[in-house]
Amino acid sequence: MNVTSVTSEDGVKEYEKIVVEPEEVEYVEIATDAKVVDLTRHRLKEIGDYSWLTHVEQFSLRWNLLKKIENLDCLTTLTHLEFYDNQIEKVENLDALVNLEILDLSFNRILKIENLEKLTKLKTLYFVHNKISKIEGLETLTELEYLELGDNRIAKIENLENNLKLDRLFLGANQIKIIENVDHLKNLTVLSLPANAITVVDNIAGLTNLKEIYLAQNGIKYVCGIDEHLPLEILDFNQNRLEKVENIHQLTTLTDFWARGNQLSDWSILDELVRLPHLNCVYLDNNPFSQADTYRGKVLRFLPQIDRLDGTQCREKSMLRPPKTEKQTTDLADVEFEKSSGGEQEPVEST
């Protein structure tokens, strides 16, 4: 766009001329039998007619300027569809895509989860960074394994009764105060709830396959409500308000314990951690007790089983090898080096 303005001597604008230059058109060649189509960053403002793509399985429309989902009814072979980072406000016009297994609608302007009833084969669903205030519209998605609803406006965990195959549930950066309505998700291995308003860890005893739980940046003061029979491997309490940690020594499968940036003021935490045989990685920095000069040395003495402390390697891993035989020692002693006249070293057999 070119703008030209002319003003008189007394500063009064007499006229303004605006010339709009046509946008450059970029042509993309796509084979009619293409199975993967990537139209990322093409500044597309609308979805055209792609009915000739009769074999497409993966279709990416990431980082465009799309405001409406449309003209996809003919692409029934699709299994993977991405609308990441557009300007879409409503989930619509997807009923014909009955073979979809992966759908990404992250970073849009969506207010409600809706119109997904026919997508019964969906296994992975992303709605990161939208304006969603309620978990709903997932009743028919019984094959769903991976659900990402992080960075929305959700205040309650609900309406997941039919999603029994869920393996990973991500609800970080919302407004959730209570962990609830997840006890029936027996296949869940990862529960991620950082940056919410949770103060108590509760209602997870039924998650008999839970291996990782992420609770950073909440308001948790005490560790409680974690069943000793849970097969937890990663327990994340970074940046909470923890004052005391008790009874985690019962979590015998734990490999990672993260509690940096809390209010732990004494060394009693080590009495719990020392009893965890598989513990490998620990974060305890930015607590009152970790300000002591002796902090790192004391932790390493108490926890000889760990390899990483506060993100730093603790000790070099030992390399085991069999001892040298007497013959190998003798053979090495039989070779000496002496300087030649040219300054180079040459091996000389001893006599």
TrEMBL record:
The record ties this protein, via SMART domains, to:
LRR_SD22 (SM00365)
Q: Name one Pfam family in it.
A: LRR_4
**Location of this chain's protein in the cell:** Nucleus
Which domain of life does the UniProt lineage start with? Answer: Eukaryota
| Main localisation | nucleus
Region of interest (Disordered), residue spans:
318-351
Q: Which GO terms describe its cellular component?
A: nucleus
Q: What is this protein called?
A: Protein phosphatase 1 regulatory subunit 7
- Which residue stretches does the UniProt record annotate as biased composition, category Basic and acidic residues? 318-329
Keywords linked to the UniProt accession: Leucine-rich repeat, Nucleus, Repeat
